[in-house]
Amino acid sequence: MLDMQRIRENPEMIAEAAARKKCIVDIKAVIELDQKRRDIIREVEQLKNLRNTRSQEISRFKKEKKDAADLISEMKNVSDSIKGLDEKLIATDGELNEILIRIPNLPHESVPRGESERDNVVISEWGEAPEYDYKLKDHLELGTSLDIIDFGRGAKISGAGFPVLKGKGALLERALINLFLDTHTQKNGYKEVFPPFLANRASHFGVGQLPKCEDQMYYIGEDELFCIPTAEVPLTNLHREEVLEADELPIKYCAYSACFRREAGSYGKDTKGYLRVHQFNKVELVKFTKPHDSLGELESLRGDAESILKALGLKYRVLELCDADLSFASLKCYDLEVWAPGEDKFLEVSSCSNFGDFQARRMNLRYRPAKGERPQFPHTLNGSGLATARILVALLETFQTERGSVIVPPVLRPYMNGLEEIVP
What we know:
alpha+beta; eight-stranded mixed beta sheet
């Protein structure tokens, strides 16, 4: 959430910045409700001061054996007024909060402007696109011929978008997850966490998934739990409603989780095969940092995710997202896209985002800059490090051979019992 003082001082700027994210904010209603709230609080404080004064007078009257009936009657009216104003304040807070929780984080000043994802800026590329002198297969053809992916049986069990990996496909998936975790814990300095894959409403609200993205989530109503769309949710909420010490920062966590997304409204957009599924595996990176360090920590976070792609030998590019394509909670974001030759296009495999203090405010997470100082809100960051589904697509298509086999990248072979090639 945004700081209310910041909104009071810059209402037009807030509305304009939200509009850049394609969010319409009734900033006039926010200002009016905020003023109404402050007026109520001021009136309540005045009445409470009056009640204190009258209470002292009543006590004095009783000691002096004087009649205090009129004062007692007046104090009852004051107490009734305070009760009515308290109820009015609760209602006003509710109205104001309903608008505030729907105001997105503001784009950082360095973020490029744009109208859609077409205006994202390619800032770097790595690797060379491989050349082939034979007809390429896509990942669906390869998955079928190698007998490692089964969409039909997955659909029988759960429905479309829930593929089954088997044999060397399951081994390859597990190898990717272990490579990601080992790289980030042993080389990049993250602490591994194994979190729940279900989280409550407060946890999803804290990171900004709710209320905006509720229609994209799988919900278990009886238990008031949601299947997590990413391990960002439990990892970031590990310190919800806590006060951290400055010397603890930065905190760096990584976690594997299955991820669940309904993908409502995405029909026709990259829905082929493994490109858009309802359940997939991902290793997530989360950081808690001091505010002045967060932009630099975003760059190192992106570098940590890129290191995996380099180790796998996959061609990729880095995009800086324009304001119109930023997520609700993000103030700055990079996407990593890997080249899939069978699809003849780049596929997003990671988003690395800086949320500023937006999530920390929603979670009431603070840190103490120094002993005796007032706690402040830290900055939170997260990035995919990486999601396996589209990496699997890129690997199969990039390292396929003319005879239909797939060469296993050297970095993965120790995780696949030394296997060098997946053959039909």
